[in-house]
Each structure stands twice: as structure tokens, then as C-alpha cells.
Amino acid sequence: MNNHLYAKPSKKNRSHPSRPRNRCCARYAVAGRGFTLLEMLVVLVIIGLLVSLVGPRLFAKVDAAKAQTAAAQIKLLRGAIETMRMDINVYPSEEQGLRLLTDAPNEPDMKRRWKGPYLEGAVPLDPWGNPYQYRPPEVSGQPFTLISLGGDGKPGGEGVDQDIGGDTGTSSNYGKSQ
Q1: Inter-residue contact 25 to 18 (CB < 8 Å)
Q2: Residue 58 has pLDDT above 90, yes or no
Q3: Spatial CB neighbours of 74, under 8 Å, sequence gap ≥ 6
Q4: What count of other Cβ atoms lies within 10 Å of the Cβ of residue 154?
Q5: CB of 77 within 8 A of CB of 69?
């Protein structure tokens, strides 16, 4: 029979199973039971306060970033429209719209001069998921109108809902009666 299996524990290893081996762990033996409901509620209240203070600032930054993205995309689309106009000698009609940047025209004379597509991929939507609004020049030599209708997708508005673009690349009065 193997004596080492039934050997008595040495004096070093003798300790009661319910007592911690060293004193520093004694205070943690009781704390190992978890958090109380009150402690969890206090932590949730603190997290809620932090979110209520920081959240509005973050959302304001998101709205500003969307407006900047819309302005940058409008500049890109304006450049593509101008490049296409130099090739085909006309701006797209309202019916053709921005689709003419990616799809060849049906008219044979324009189709022959069209050197597109002028965009990689499809025409992008504005940052709010709405299509950009294009209106050809009303008088020859005047700039065309290209806008994003802002966060609400309707003409006009203020703040986040303000139209972006227009004839000058800033806010617009597109769709408003004068």
C-alpha cells in the first residue's frame, strides 16, 4: 500500500477548511458573495448621469458631421456634373437628373460624347438617407441647383433640418415660394 496517499498533512498545510490561509484574504472571503441591489442601482444612476451630460454633446457632433458630409458630397456631385457638361455640352434635364452621371443618355448625339460614368458606383444618398435634389439652370449660363433637404427631408427648416447646398453651396431656399 502507498503510504504517501494516506500521509498526515504537514503543520504548514494544516488549516481549517472554512478559514482563509492568510489574513489578507479574510476580508474578501465575506465580500465574495456579489453586489447588493442597492449597489447596482447606485452604479446605474451614476452611469445615467454621465450619459445625460455627455450624450447631447455627442449627438450635436453627429449632426454637424452629417451636414459636413452632405456639403462634401454636394461638392463632389457638382464637380462630376460640370465634368459631364463639358463632355456633352449640356446640363442634365430635370428628368435625367443625377442618374446621367452613371447611366449613358438615350439620345445618340449625347451618347456619343458621354464619357462616363462620372461617379464610381451609384449616386449617393444624403447622410439622412434621402436623394439629393437637382434642378437644371433656368437660364443658360446660370448655375444649377443641387441640395440636400436636411434631416427632415422637406424644403426649408432650421438647424439639423436646414437645406444644404443650393446655388452657392450653402443653405438654400429650394422649394420655397418667394
Answers
A1: no
A2: no
A3: 132, 146, 147, 148, 164, 165, 169
A4: 12
A5: no
